[in-house]
Amino acid sequence: IDWYEVQVGDLLGEGASGRALLAGAVGDMLGRRKVMLISYAWFSVGMGLTAMATTSAAFGWLRFATGLGIGSLVATTAALVAEYAPAGKKNMINAITNGGIPLGSLLAALLAILLMQHIGWRGMFWIGALPIVTLLPLAYFKMPESVVWLASRGRMDEARAMSERTGVPMPEAVLAMPGAKVPAGAGKVGFAGLFS
Questions:
Q1: pLDDT digits over 2-39, tens only?
Q2: How far apart (Å, rounded) are the C-alpha atoms in residues 81 and 128?
Q3: Kindly report the CA angle at 101 between 168 and 195, in degrees rounded to 5?
Q4: Torsion (CA) 41, 74, 162, 27 in degrees, nearest 10
């Protein structure tokens, strides 16, 4: 691969930015948990495919596609963290969560310094694919769906059960009036939340 032909950072950034803009709307339709699970699988598979790239064009396009999964994961994680963080600590916990992005980049660079000469760039991308066997199964079994999203879909029994299990309060509209529906935009983030 001719590295001078590939603008890796630009391609990854463009993919991440594009998907982050759509993640809120897709999360409103499918649920934040499903979008996160799909994103884990998407970027892990993307990393594995990138490790097998044989041309600079394939490498670039695969980095772009991988960025779609990463951008979606970042945006959806921020929404779920904001919903599940304790009252009064939402900003701090969201800052810590979002601080993990540059910290992860720094750790990846340090890992590359230590391992690149031994495993090469392909090996580094195979390490990037590991979340499909580590984080994805953990998230599948342990990560709850958004209480607000469940309530906004009329799945009140599930929302109440999740609220009791996690300690996240039910949306105010539901608590104020028995049988009340959550406002249309209550569970929406991103562009979808702006126009509801």
A1: 444 444 445 555 555 555 666 767 777 888 899 999 99
A2: 23
A3: 55
A4: -80
Q: What per-residue confidence (pLDDT) applies to 51?
A: 95
Residue 54 has, within 13 A of its CA and on its CB side, a CA count of 0
Amino acid at 82: A
**Alpha carbon 63 to chain centroid distance?**
16
Tens of pLDDT, residues 90-136 = 889 988 988 888 898 899 899 999 999 999 999 999 999 999 999 99
- Both tokens of 147, joined, read 């209480």
What is the CA angle 79-128-94, rounded to 5?
Answer: 20
Task: For residues 185 and 196, give the distance between their C-alpha atoms in angstroms, rounded to a whole number.
Answer: 5
Q: Would you call 144 helix, strand, or coil by DSSP?
A: coil
Residue whose structure tokens are 């999740």: 162
184 burial type by CB count under 10 A (0-12 exposed, 13-18 middle, 19+ buried): exposed
Say which DSSP state 183 is in. P
